[in-house]
Amino acid sequence: MTGAVTAVAPSPRAFVTLLLLACLFGGNHVAARIALDHGTDVVTAVAARSLVTALVVAVLVFVNRVPLTLLPRHRRVMPLIGLLVAIQSVCLYGAVARIPVGLALLAFNSWPLWTGFWVFVLYREAPQRQVLLAMPVILIGLALALDVWGAASGLGARAQWSAIGPGVALAVAAAATFGVVLALTQHEVAALDGRLRSAITMAIVGVLALMVAPFQGGLHWPNAPAGWWGLAALTVLYGTAFTSLFVLLPKLGVVGNSPILNVEPVAALVLAWAILGQAIAPVQWVGALLVVGAVMALGLRRRR
Questions:
Q1: Residues 6+ apart with CB under 8 A from 157
Q2: Are the C-beta atoms of 255 and 5 separated by less than 8 Å?
């Protein structure tokens, strides 16, 4: 999800559309879990999702006659952004395969903190005050949502981290990588049309996935009908939501992303409970709402 955000609040129609898109993005990860549980591997899921989305967005670029001119800086940075998004996608789907979907997305929702960190490291821009204020709230919320002490699960800290540690590590790695992507996008390629930038990025991600596949025995397709449905659903849901960012939202007065889209982890928690039977304790819900609320408030304050 890339692009600028308007400074005005969305209309009721746009608000509902944004909530629907958040549900579609969340549903994509629930569908990914189904596909991954039935024979599909992470690289295959990333390849299918990215190539189909790249094709759809490329059609938008063609239909809207978006200029295809890239400055030398763009040509240098876009391959790096594509590589980073590929790493982020593999890490996030890997997390979804290992821990409850909503918890993986909540850990990934630490990306605003990572963005501030990378902007400081790469461009020596001090983090904004609101980022520093949001940091402890997000970290406390994550600690509660992930049940880091194992109190809600009754497992204890050691057993809890043994169960969720690898998945959380992958989700945090995805957030850190996405933070680099946002820092580079903001400072290096912000002037490049979002549709063209996204088409290039998704194409690079898809091609990289196809290049990696032979080293792990080729693409691994689903071994059961549920897996095929999951793979098809994750591709359609992600492609629909991603494309809608550039088709529907500008017409509704919202350009690119919105903090409202950060309710995606909550949508995923509800969908995962309803479809996969993944339930979490009440205290974990409190943590989830803390994380989502802090990220949404951070996004809204940044744009005043």
A1: 148, 149, 150
A2: yes
Q: Hey, is 6 helix, strand or coil?
A: coil
> CA nearest 171: which of 243, 98, 225, 233?
98
Whole-number Cα distances in Å, 248 to 25, 59, 76, 245? 15, 15, 31, 6
Closest residue by Cα to residue 257 from 169, 202, 186: 186
b/e burial code for range 163-190 (CB count within 10 A of at least 16 → b): bbeebbebbbbbbbbbbbbbbbbbebbe
Residues in the chain: 304
Tokens coding 107: 């850990």
In DSSP notation, 128-167 reads PHHHHHHHHHHHHHHHHHTTTTSTTTTS-HHHHHHHHHHH
For the segment 137-180, what is each residue's pLDDT rounded down to a tens digit? 888 989 999 888 888 878 888 888 988 999 999 999 999 999 99
**Cβ atoms 265, 109 nearer than 8 A:** yes
Strand ranges for the chain from DSSP E: none
Report how far residue 211's alpha carbon sits from residue 188's, in angstroms, rounded to the nearest whole number.
27
Residues whose CB is less than 8 angstroms from the CB of residue 121 and which lie 6 or more positions away in sequence, other chains included: none
Report pTM.
0.88
